[in-house]
Write a structure and sequence with these properties.
With 298 residues, the protein is an alpha/beta fold. It folds into 2 domains: 9-239, Alpha-Beta Barrel (TIM Barrel), CATH 3.20.20.60; 243-297. It has 12 helices and 10 strands. It has helices at residues 22-29, 49-59, 79-86, 102-119, 135-139, 141-145, 158-165, 177-190, 206-218, 232-239, 243-261, 276-297, and strands at residues 13-18, 35-39, 67-70, 93-96, 127-132, 155-156, 196-197, 223-226, 267-269, 272-274. An 8-stranded parallel β-sheet has the order 6-5-4-3-2-1-8-7. It has a two-stranded antiparallel sheet with strand order 9-10. β1 (13-18), α1 and β2 (35-39) form a beta-alpha-beta unit. α9 (206-218) runs parallel beside α10 and α11 crosses α12 (276-297). It is globular. The two termini are 30 Å apart.
Length: 298
């Protein structure tokens, strides 16, 4: 297993900002969100898409980690011009909405490679973040996950997905569980990062957001999309190990390392079997706790 100390800190919070509102984009860029997604798709009216591209390119000049842009879907007349306009801003990645096949990813991969060549960037610099938000996309998730080396992570979009399937998006989100787990499983099988969960669209329902974020953790997602700055810290809190979990992990690590030094790799801690996978999981939890503590001090 890889050493947890060599693994980059996971990106938990992904904050959307409308591409045509510079004030909101600037606030998002200055926020504590781990990543910002400047939006050229749903947040921008058709008549404003051209002007929004220039605004997004200007916002990309603000130097912060993890700057992404959601372009319009490849099925629209806007996607090609979106890419051409924003690539000089050197975003870290492109979110591709309505991703429905491996070919969608390959088309964007080819297009990004041409712009990287023209800009003198190493090929593969720009990541692709496929957004799965249709039945066709989720049904092809295995192929999408391995379609390009630029894809290191997938994202789930529940709003368009429930619309596509005619589902009622309930407060407990039970109708989404099987689809979420399918995306998590495909990501693991492909050897990429755990995926990003859908946004909670009821901005005024903080308790609902907390419950949804906890489900993201429990279902195996790495982080969650946010549509308002108030949601960012809720996501961070959900993924931050609590004191009891840290205490359990500390006990497991200490006991296992003592046992391993004595020649044993399977022991009982508090009446439960601990072997290498359990030990590694505990180590990663402690590493995540240290990262969270460092964020709080920053």
């Amino acid at each position: 297993m890889p050493d947890p100390d060599t693994i980059a800190a996971p990106i938990r919070s992904w904050l959307f900002a409308p591409g045509n509102h510079m004030h909101h984009a600037a606030k998002a860029m200055a926020s504590v969100a781990h990543a910002v997604i400047l939006d050229l798709e749903d947040a921008v009216a058709i008549a404003e898409k051209g002007a929004a591209r220039a605004d997004v390119r200007a916002a990309l000049a603000q130097h912060r980690a993890n700057r992404y842009v959601r372009i319009n879907a490849l099925s629209t007349p806007f996607a090609f011009d979106d890419v051409a306009a924003i690539m000089p801003g050197k975003p870290d990645g492109i979110m591709l909405p309505k991703t429905e096949s491996a070919d969608h990813v390959r088309i964007l991969d080819w297009l990004l490679a041409q712009h990287e060549r023209m800009l003198g960037l190493p090929e593969g610099t720009t990541q692709i973040l496929p957004l799965l938000e249709t039945a066709r996309g989720v049904s092809h998730v295995d192929a999408i996950a391995v379609a390009s080396r630029r894809v290191s992570q997938l994202a789930f979009g529940a709003g368009d997905f429930t619309l596509d399937l005619g589902l009622d998006w309930s407060r407990d989100e039970g109708e989404l569980m099987s689809y979420r787990l399918a995306i998590v499983l495909a990501s693991k099988a492909a050897g990429i990062h755990a995926p990003i969960d859908a946004a909670w669209v009821q901005v005024g329902d903080a308790e609902g957001m907390r419950s949804s974020a906890r489900r993201s953790v429990d279902h195996g997602f790495q982080g969650k999309l946010c549509i308002h700055p108030s949601q960012v810290e809720i996501v961070h809190d959900a993924y931050r190990p609590d004191a009891a979990a840290i205490a359990r992990a500390s006990a497991i690590v200490a006991a296992f390392e003592d046992a391993e030094a004595a020649g044993s790799a399977a022991i009982a801690v508090a009446g439960k079997l601990v072997d290498y996978p359990i030990y590694e999981s505990a180590r990663r939890l402690l590493l995540d706790a240290r990262r969270s503590a460092a964020e709080n001090l920053a």
